[in-house]
């Protein structure tokens, strides 16, 4: 089943395309369209399709435990999708072979392939044969990643499933391919959801997961800091580390160690360590600052055994505005900052970890980078972050560090913060360009980022940007946005109609509309919560009013496309996958639609009451007055529509939150819904007083007396 909608307005500017612009070297010179794979392999030659009516068998001739785990992972997927996994006549065998084995060498030779040195660590080859599909790799990681590609080569469910065979050679462009997950700005995911994150990230060849802590790790040495029910315990950490190891994912904790420590410094016993009272930054000159950091990272190192620890140390805006004012005035901000950063690194050296830190050092003199000691450079990695598209490229963010001989990683972002749904209009461009330039400048790692600045983030909304980050980190050079957009729905959701791809694109276009046309900035969450009758709301209404129709059409097209994808799957007797993420996409579309509806209805309320007020003295207009007042505040009144919109969305949001997060912090978000619902209910009560006055006296109070704004000139 397919579904399409005629392009309207901005759709023509950022529409999905069926032309694949792929950074892929085909083993054959024959032009061919690439299948829906995320990430795309480096080299691939399609070899024909096989319907799996007789099933698919997984074989591990070497009996390696890691390879058996990979085989079990593939078998579990087959069972979940109703594909026969037991051996029977006519079935296909997927065999997992180590590259050094005789069988692997024979398969490679027959296919005319070699296993090049770049493939040794994580690379793999896939070779189709007579009734077999051989996954060949030198390491457990390579076998596992080859299996993940095999999983994506299977379309459909049950005995109608099809295996798209291909000859493939593949290996990553970047060694460390990571995701940072903000666990300190509201939502704290459950351990079970974190395990799902690990499984899913590994399926797209991500090999590093970094939980972000400001105050949400439960330290035995500092038990006051972590909120009860809203922190990761050492037991949680150990369980996730063991789980992630099976999936070849290294967990790297980040604990902020300089800035972003407000929730620590509000405690009275830590107040002397604050640069400014109850601020965000540790004062470098305080003798207790370094011991506190040492305690934290000693505990983290005991439960997270990987090669890295992340010390954060970004956005230290308070530095020099309190206890260190005199020092900063004397030596300069950059010197004071780098001095404390070096002291942290030196103090943590007994932990024998390489330390990541955010590369937004407040240094105006590049020579300060070059002057850092060799020991500091050897033991640290600068993680460089920026989250917007950069038409002139991202080299300027990286070059000062590489010129100073400092190792770098790049950190783009999924642009989920303060959004009703992630701004993938920005995210995909940012990820694409930053990872491309990071590769060209020799960055050894990518740390894609999820941030929850407003405390309302739902990770199930973030998978689109997370998966594109995984693709860009694995693939060489500039990853194709059109190919990802065209592949995402089939690969992640099992939607072969293209509807979910198009639904994602509709919300891309909605963000593009708000940013480029309405000029409302990026904070769609702010638009969702702003009171349209406040002064700020009236100013914003002037910006968004010409675009509310198109905004709502994008959101509602997304809802229609989601419904079409679900209907098509049901009609075909198949099940869409990752349905929580589809529900989150639907919630994002509903919230975007409610933004437009709110401003439309607010104008209609103001105009309707103004008409009623103007007609109150005319006896022949009394029925019109009653009708106008009823449309403002009746059974189907505009005020009731806004109450209902926020009430319904509130329930959907609560359900979505609890699918991934602990109850901690949820009340802070639900209160905003409840207060907004009560706001419109109270406004309905005030208009009802005016309606009773009309019934008794055939007069109405001025709009200002009951809190209504006057109509905008644009709506008259």
Report on the architecture of this protein.
The protein is α/β, with parallel strands linked by helices and 716 residues long. The protein folds into three domains: 43-170, Chitobiase/beta-hexosaminidase domain 2-like (Chitobiase, domain 2); 176-479, Alpha-Beta Barrel (TIM Barrel), CATH 3.20.20.80; 504-715, Four Helix Bundle (Hemerythrin (Met), subunit A), CATH 1.20.120. It is 46% helix and 12% strand. The protein contains 23 helices and 16 strands. The strands form two sheets. Strands 8, 9, 10, 11, 12, 13, 14, 15 and 16 form a nine-stranded parallel β-sheet that branches. Strands 1, 2, 3, 4, 5, 6 and 7 form a seven-stranded mixed β-sheet that branches. α8 (325-331) packs across α9 (333-347), α13 runs parallel beside α14 and α20 packs antiparallel against α21. The relative contact order is 0.09. The model is unreliable at 1-33 (pLDDT under 50).
What distinguishing features does this structure have?
Four Helix Bundle (Hemerythrin (Met), subunit A), globular, nine-stranded parallel sheet, 716 residues, seven-stranded mixed sheet, Chitobiase, domain 2, disordered N terminus, TIM Barrel, alpha/beta
